[in-house]
Structure formats: structure tokens, C-alpha cells
Amino acid sequence: MFIKGKNFIAKIQNSPEPVRKRWLIILSGASMAAVLGLWVIYINLVVGAPGSELTLESEEQRPGAGDTFIAGLKIVGQELQRGGTGVINRLRDKLGRVNSIDISGAERNFILEGLGPIPKTPLP
């Protein structure tokens, strides 16, 4: 199995640039999803639901972090299946903005004339 993985990596290294970029995006996304999934599982195990010590029978169950994450993934998947126009429009809005930086010289609003010497204070 280790040799298969090593051969797969060598095959990617010898591939053209677009293929390597595609695999970079795919594997980066998969690793991010794995880390995020493990983080959600960890948070659910460590933190738990708020007020779980005082569970009442009449209190309805709230969805956990994992359920919320999965619901978000479903919404993103549905948006991408519809063509992803909302996502693309939001990206165009973000990328279409122009930032500007104003650099101005230092403004000196103090006068050093007539200033007496500052006394030295020994530290303890």
C-alpha cells in the first residue's frame, strides 16, 4: 500500500502543471474537510450541549455542531447543484472591490524649543 501511494505521488509529480494543480486543490480540500470533521467530533465530545447536566424531559433536543456542519454542507451542495450562481455572484462582488491606501507624510505637531531636560530616575 505504501508503494502504491509512493507511485501515485510520483505519477502526479511527472504530470503536467494543470493536473498537479487539480490534485493540489482536491487533496487540500479533502484534508481540510478531514481536519474540520475531526475538530467537530472533538468539540462535540469535549464541550457537549449547553445545559446537558440539567436535562429535562420536556426540553427538546438542539442540533449539535456536527449536525449544523452537515446541514451547511447540504446547503452548499444544493447551491452548487443549481449552478452555484449565488456563490459566483458573491465571489465576483468580493473580487470586484478596489482597495486604496493613502500614504501621507508625518505631521509634526509638537515643539521641542524650551523643553527642559528630563530627570533620570534610577530603577529599584
Largest sheet: none
Total strands: the figure is 0
Shape: extended
Classify the secondary structure makeup into a structural class: mainly alpha
Poorly predicted parts: none
Helix content: 55-70%
Instruction: Return Rg in Å.
Output: 29 Å
Distance between the termini: 67 Å
Order of helices and strands: HHHH
Helical stretch tally: 4
Average pLDDT figure: 81
Strand content: under 5%
Write the layout of secondary structure elements.
Elements: H1 2-13, H2 17-46, H3 65-81, H4 85-96
Walk me through what this model shows.
The protein is mainly alpha-helical and 124 residues long. The protein has a domain at 1-47. 57% of the residues lie in helices and 0% in strands. The chain has four helices and no strands. The protein has helices at 2-13, 17-46, 65-81, 85-96. It starts with a helix and ends in a 28-residue tail after the last helix. The mean pLDDT is 81.
How would you concisely characterize the structure shown here?
By secondary structure, the chain is an all-alpha fold. It has helices at residues 2-13, 17-46, 65-81, 85-96. Helices cover 57% and strands 0% of the residues.
List keywords for this structure.
single chain, 124 residues, mainly alpha, 57% helix, 0% strand
